[in-house]
């Protein structure tokens, strides 16, 4: 055990793990979350570890997995259960199989119930329980692929049969608890007190939980490897520079002719009011009308929209088209107006 590096990373209610072998410097990230990518890389660098594998304990429905993006960046394989619908999974695993990370052995336990592709990871003194078993709870079984009867079997006939002193590290916790033990969960976890299969299923069916906020988007991206809207905008923001509202205010008041102000909102919104001097090309028509309306690629062009997101995408598109000085407003027409900006 002395050879194991183990760090839990919390982000919102999500728990992810960097687990490494100190002897060989190899490591795996379990349930990487998209907002923490730089943190994982920083931890690995700090500890002198090289990430060899990425693993998702199941198809997450409530947050965005970073597996696909890290796979592209690090050129390392993604591990998931063979039932995972994601096309980018490189190593599909099954119950009882072992992942070798340097001198460490991670054993896969197939534990369906929360989803059809849920797995837990067994280490010598602990188990990563994914959303199968949480501290004081269990994963829900009412989302796509959920099955309360299967969760019962996964818990009572498999996971809870591991040694009771085993540490429990879940994929979620909303109360800042880091971990537990199987013994403590068996004694105190309210969901584990219903010992008969029927009672457990009844309990799970009666929960009536609220749908997760990003359900559709999380399932779309985690199943396909596609980007979330926030990731798409963040990627575009990484390719451009921004102008502050104050800077724009000064530019407008000195009638700066060098700056083309480009309103990318719909025509109707433009007609109702816009920043003085702006021209209007709705985002959807940008590529169609750009040659006619903006013939000079060396001009400085500032894109704006209502909230600053669509204009970020528009400015990144302009840069790709060769407008090397395209920028976006840091903010949007709404904040321009709220801070007393002039309108035409
Ligand atoms: Fe989950």
Concise summary:
The protein is of the alpha/beta class.
Describe the 3D structure:
- It is elongated and about 75 Å long.
- Helix content is 30%, strand content 24%.
- It has helices at 37-47, 67-74, 148-156, 182-188, 197-205, 215-224, 229-237, 245-253, 267-272, 286-293, 310-320, 333-338; strands spanning 4-11, 14-21, 26-30, 50-55, 78-81, 91-93, 98-101, 104-110, 119-122, 126-130, 133-134, 137-138, 167-170, 180-181, 241-243, 259-263, 279-280, 300-304, 326-329.
- It has two domains: 4-227, Ribonuclease Z/Hydroxyacylglutathione hydrolase-like (Metallo-beta-lactamase, Chain A), CATH 3.60.15; 230-338, 3-Layer(aba) Sandwich (Oxidized Rhodanese, domain 1), CATH 3.40.250.10.
- The model has no long low-confidence stretch (mean pLDDT 96).
- The chain contains twelve helices and 19 strands.
- By secondary structure, it is α/β, with parallel strands linked by helices.
- Fe (ii) ion (FE2) binds at residues 58, 60-61, 114, 131, 139.
